[in-house]
Each structure stands twice: as C-alpha cells, then as structure tokens.
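input
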Amino acid sequence: MAHFEVKSRRIVMDNKGNDKSITEAFFIENCTSWADAEDKMLMYFNSENEVVGMAISKVLEVVNTPTQEEKMDMFVYRAVIASVYTDDDGNEKEMKYPVLLWAKSIDEAMEIVKGYIAQGLDGMSLVSITKTKIVEVI
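output
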C-alpha cells in the first residue's frame, strides 16, 4: 500500500459573488494504485473537485488522528525522525523517517513527536518539523 499527496482544485464563491478557483493539498493513505488515490479523493468530495497533481508520498505514517471537531483548530505538520547506523564498511549513515501529525502549534507538534519517539524508537532523534499545506488526511 502506498500513500499519496494530492492537489485538488475546486471553484468557490468569494464575498463579492465571483467564482474563485482554490487549490488544496491532501494526504491519501493506503492506496493500491494511482487510480485508487484519485477515486478516494473524488469520493471524498463527491466528484466536485478536480485532481490537478498527485505524487507518491515519502511519508511513512500519520502519528495521530484527531476527531473532525478537534481538527478545526489544528494544522498538519511533517516531522522527520532519523536514526544513525553503521553500514558494513564501518561508515555512519543516517536513515530518515518522515511522518505527519496534527497539532495546534509547533510546540505541541514537538511534544507529540517526543511522545512518539518515546514509544520505543530507541536511538531515533527529531531532525525537523515543518507546517504543511495539507488540509486533510483521507
């Protein structure tokens, strides 16, 4: 199964009654194919959106899943966690694991990642956290 990052365009009406095109980013989990990701996106919006971009995501998992009500005050952050290992030639290498999470602030995102790492990811450390443009995880 693969995860996809999808950009979708839809038409909304602005304050003056004019049609306005907006593009939003979504993260689609557990898809079997490109077509499956597009189908999930279109089903989510009852075919009202046009898929304008799609890529297989490097994100490995979504760390937390708040309720729809909780999401109203939250943003999606991308955290990169890394571990250092020694290869067969004795060289130190870094393996990076990108994950997504929902949080109200960067400080809360850091606390969530610290808790995630504490669940048994020994030797792992936080490399970076960035706020994304993703508006929903599907």
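quick obs: The chain is about 20% helix and 50% strand.
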